[in-house]
Design brief:
Length: 110
């Protein structure tokens, strides 16, 4: 099942860190650099914000920066990013993504 949570402060971030494990999914608004080839053959890089779902392979919690990094493979393909591509979602109480919410998916809630 899935739930949405809102991260408003450092305590919420700590609780989130203790809730999400490797193998779970996290869905959030995040930044992604996209590259394309221009008409003259030059490489163009654009940074866009989009919603991605990542199946977590590693978690990095930095309490000094009030930041959790969820790294893993994109689980749901969209028009800009294919499934299986690696991505890292950063969650902080301040940014907490554009909507202030992230989605958590688990096979089994214990």
């Amino acid at each position: 099942g899935t739930v949405k949570v809102k991260i408003e402060d450092d305590e919420d971030l700590w609780q989130l860190y203790n809730l999400v494990y490797v193998g779970d999914t996290v869905r959030a608004s995040t930044w992604r650099k996209l590259q394309s080839v221009g008409t003259t053959g030059n490489v163009l890089t654009n940074k866009i914000r989009l919603n991605l779902t990542v199946k977590i392979t590693s978690i990095d919690f930095d309490p000094q920066s009030s930041l959790i990094r969820y790294s893993g493979k994109v689980a749901c393909e969209n028009e800009h990013v294919k499934s299986g591509v690696f991505h890292t979602i950063e969650v902080t109480p301040v940014s907490a993504t554009l909507s202030g919410e992230i989605g958590i998916g688990k096979e089994c809630w214990d």
